[in-house]
Amino acid sequence: MRVRGSVVVVTGASSGIGRATAEAFARKGCAVVLAARREEALEEVADRCERHRGAQALVVPTDVTDLPAVQELAGRAVERFGRIDAWVNDAAVTVFAPFQEVPMEDFRRVLDVNVMGYVHGARAALDVMREQGWGTLVNVSSVVGALPQPYTHAYGMSKAAIRALGASLRQELWLEGERHIRVCTVLPATVDTPLFDHAANYTGRRPVAMPPVYSPERVARAVVGLVRAPRREAVVGPMGREMLMEARTMPGAAEKLMALQVDRTHLSRREPGPATDGNLHAPAPGEGSVHGGWHGRRRTAVRRLATAALLTGTVMGVGRRLRAR
Question: Residue 32: CB partners within 8 Å, gap ≥ 6?
Fold first, then answer.
């Protein structure tokens, strides 16, 4: 599908991947419909989006757990722009805690936002897309949907459910002969977003981004790519692809490795974390941001330079050995 000039709805657009995705589409001259709970943050995103030539932005404050509100979001998009070419479900929250210490209202809230929020988005998007006869739905899941972690049970469950939802919808649309409506799932590895600072937490340790960390812009490029050329799933980050392969080929060992990685690098051993319900029940204050301060873009650049240096050294070494013969 031609991306330039498309009408794209993005939930979770106030920060992180959603915000980066909205700006990525705006750079393509798209009309973006921005949804999240924080109107102030959305207005700032809209201002940034409209700086790009041809881009238009519509702010619709929305709690994705409220089905009528999500349906109104779709209606506002169609009323303003006449159609919806792509819908990106990205709004998400999380809680870190030992399983039996997670407050049940927090557990339910994660599932309500991350699962039912996507269900509401898919319902609203597909209502419009079925009527117009085309469109692409992109659901942002995670590699932890395939290889879950300790202490984030509800988040892992939700991301697995999102992946299953995508597969079920693709099958149903295929059976109904809807060849011009596509459903895609994105599975990022760890991304440099404010999610970890906004998380609910009852572990006593500060959640930090588990390396390797990738940039939100990298995920946004993957989302734009799926709208341009839809496919079932896109994994973002080499580590994500490696994790999925390990989960398929040696699941027991992969689970143990993930447990150790989370304990050693996902929960700080130096910084305590106060008990908090984070942004589960009320949005975080402030204007929001794309990045969380975990330097995903810089770390990616460093990894690429290190890989290039290693390859250069290997090639030079082989060349020296060949000349010595």
Answer: 8, 9, 10, 13, 22, 25, 26, 46, 49, 55, 56, 57, 58
